[in-house]
């Protein structure tokens, strides 16, 4: 059957000539099976742009995310490019087909009252002091989970109330640390001295009882545990704290650029999505603030 022959030919090409990984080959194989299933043609040459558009629409109706459909279309497009180059096909029916856009969902946040309730931990034990310190730091500085895991004691300047954060792409930024977080961190550092620290992790701020740097999974577990314990009626995870930080600071300051800097976002559009700031509000701020946007009196 033509399908099987051409599919195998393409997979061999990707494997032996392109040298793609096992996982990539597995993904391409799945995408080609989807193509055959969705268009229901006996010959690839019979597939038209309308067939591809219908297939894309069907995937969308099944709830597949726009980005996933775009990736699948890209795989099909590459397959037909190969057929044109190696098997004398005339045209690529995927060439001008684009995935349907998936509406961006706004990130969830906790209310200010919920955040205060979450971090108001009245637990002076070793782990209680540690957890309160990293919860305060999450909310104080809007850090990513990986940034909290990797923070070192020397990254902090508690006198100045700032810390150096190494974020995505090893980019560093300076962020403020609030007084509540500073107080909680100082109390934790005192408790931390009671732990025999593994020599590999002497710099790590947040460590386990065994003296190793705390893992991301452990922080996730402890945050959810405290959410339940503190009576927060929501699934709480580290990124929710980051969303909440951004939303609450923006509500108070309306300074999108400052929030962008603190979050370490390369593009301000990312900050806009994170922080529930609607476009109309952005437009109003722009109209009032930008010298080229102000209306003539």
CATH class of the largest domain: Mainly Alpha
Name the shape in a single word: elongated
Helix content: 55-70%
Identify the strand order in the major beta sheet.
1-2-3
Order of helices and strands: HHHHHHHEEEHHHHHH
- Derived from helix and strand composition plus strand pairing, the structural class reads mainly alpha
What is the count of β-strands?
3
CATH architecture of the largest domain: Orthogonal Bundle
Number of helices: 13
* Radius of gyration from CA coordinates: 26 Å
Mean pLDDT: 85
Main β-sheet: number of strands, strand sense, barrel status? Answer: 3 strands, antiparallel
Given as residue ranges, the uncertain stretches (5+ residues, pLDDT < 50) are 274-282
How far apart lie the N and C ends?
74 Å
Strand content: under 5%
How many domains would you count in the coordinates? 2
> What is the CATH topology of the largest domain?
hpI Integrase, Chain A
The CATH superfamily of the largest domain bears the name Intergrase catalytic core
Describe the structure.
With about 300 residues, the protein is mainly alpha-helical. It folds into two domains: about 1-85, DNA polymerase, domain 1 (Orthogonal Bundle), CATH 1.10.150; about 110-290, Intergrase catalytic core (hpI Integrase, Chain A). Helix content is about 55%, strand content about 5%. The protein is built from 13 helices and three strands, in the order αααααααβββαααααα. The chain has helices at about 1-15, 20-40, 50-60, 65-85, 110-120, 125-140, 145-150, 180-190, 215-230, 240-255, 255-265, 270-275, 280-290; strands at about 155, 160-165, 170-175. α1 (about 1-15) packs antiparallel against α2 (about 20-40). The model is unreliable at about 275-280 (pLDDT under 50).
């Amino acid at each position: 059957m033509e399908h099987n022959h051409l599919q195998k030919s393409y997979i061999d090409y990707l494997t032996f000539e392109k040298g793609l990984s096992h996982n990539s080959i597995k993904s391409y194989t799945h995408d080609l099976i989807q193509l055959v299933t969705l268009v229901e043609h006996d010959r690839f040459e019979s597939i038209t742009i309308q067939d591809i558009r219908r297939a894309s629409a069907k995937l969308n109706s099944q709830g597949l995310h726009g980005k996933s459909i775009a990736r699948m279309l890209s795989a099909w497009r590459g397959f037909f490019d190969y057929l044109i180059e190696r098997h004398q096909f005339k045209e690529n029916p995927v060439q001008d087909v684009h995935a349907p856009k998936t509406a961006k969902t706004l990130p969830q946040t906790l209310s200010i009252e919920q955040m205060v309730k979450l971090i108001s931990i009245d637990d002076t034990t070793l782990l209680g002091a540690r957890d309160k310190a990293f919860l305060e730091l999450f909310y104080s500085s809007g850090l990513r989970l990986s940034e909290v895991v990797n923070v070192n004691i020397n990254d902090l300047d508690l006198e100045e109330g700032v810390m150096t954060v190494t974020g995505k792409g090893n980019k560093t930024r300076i962020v403020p640390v609030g007084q509540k977080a500073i107080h909680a961190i100082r109390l934790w550092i005192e408790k931390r001295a009671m732990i025999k620290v593994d020599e590999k992790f002497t710099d790590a701020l947040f460590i386990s009882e065994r003296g190793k740097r705390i893992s991301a999974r452990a922080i996730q577990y402890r945050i959810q545990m405290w959410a339940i314990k503190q009576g927060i009626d929501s699934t709480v995870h580290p990124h929710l704290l980051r969303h909440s930080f951004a939303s609450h600071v923006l509500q108070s300051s309306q300074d999108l650029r400052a929030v962008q800097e603190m979050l370490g976002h390369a593009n301000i559009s990312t900050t806009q999505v994170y922080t529930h700031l609607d476009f109309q509000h952005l437009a109003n701020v722009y109209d009032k603030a930008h010298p080229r946007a102000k209306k003539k009196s």
